[in-house]
Specification:
The protein is an alpha/beta fold and 227 residues long. Helix content is 35%, strand content 15%. The protein is built from ten helices and six strands; from the N terminus they run αααβαααβααβαββαβ. Strands 1-6-5-2 form a four-stranded parallel sheet, sandwiched between helices. The protein is globular and about 55 Å long. The relative contact order is 0.16. Bound molecules: zinc ion. Zinc ion (ZN) binds next to helix 2. Belongs to the ComF/GntX family.
Length: 227
């Protein structure tokens, strides 16, 4: 069907407030863009995301882009991104975030962006990793290579949301592995995930990456939520 006709029949709505989007608006309306709960972590010496890892794993930096509130706009965006196939939301958020992160690669000498991986079986069920478009776009905007094959997930586990907190806490290093150590030595990896809650998954991934000789790890998540 012709694109304009399709637009006439199914006008695009804001993922935040469900209002009709204007012609120059994409994904979310101007009003919702202004209401995005940005954390500004990248401007702070320390922040809530970094604090989750104090004494647990040594990270160069850790930022989250947005605060996640129940029933809030970020929850809606993440839900559409993660479960409804709206991968364009990841690209959209990364374009906004990249404006704040200009020069990040040079400042911290970052070598590669690494997504928190899904198990191949889960990847098949969902058909995409929800952080993929966010990673790809950040990679392009910040000129940091994207490596989605280095860190792999080993065993199949239940959906995170179905687990209770205690179960999530026991996630351990063995869930993840390094596919190939040979070209990874001495690199600074920027690990990326969608939402940070307890930090257990990121901890596990970071510890796995830090098994690589002389590696450094930093973390960016799309959203931060209090655990
Ligand atoms: Zn809106």
């Amino acid at each position: 069907m012709h694109k304009n006709l399709l637009k006439l029949l199914f006008p695009p709505l804001c993922f935040g407030c469900n209002e009709l989007l204007l012609n120059n608006e994409k994904i979310i309306c101007t009003s919702c863009v202004h209401d995005l709960p940005l954390t500004h972590h990248h401007l702070l010496d320390t922040n809530d995301t970094k604090k989750k890892f104090y004494g647990i794993v040594d990270l160069e930096f850790a930022f989250s882009m947005l605060y996640f509130h129940k029933e809030g706009i970020v929850q809606k965006l993440i839900h559409q991104l993660k479960y409804k196939g709206k991968q364009e939301i990841g690209s959209y958020l990364a374009i906004i975030y990249a404006l704040s992160l200009k020069g990040l690669k040079e400042k911290y000498n970052i070598d590669e962006i690494i997504p928190v991986p899904l198990h191949p079986k889960r990847l098949k069920e969902r058909s995409y990793n929800q952080v993929d478009t966010f990673c790809l776009t950040l990679s392009r905007e910040l000129s940091i290579p994207y490596n989605k094959t280095l860190l792999i997930k080993n065993e199949y586990s239940k959906t995170q949301t179905k687990k209770n907190k205690a179960e999530r806490q026991v996630l351990n290093n063995s869930l993840f592995d390094i596919k190939d150590y040979s070209s990874a030595e001495g690199k600074h990896f920027l690990l990326i995930d969608d939402v940070i809650t307890t930090g257990a998954t990121i901890e596990s991934c970071a510890k796995t990456l830090l098994k690589i000789p002389n590696a450094k790890v930093s973390v960016i998540t799309i959203a931060y939520t209090q655990s």
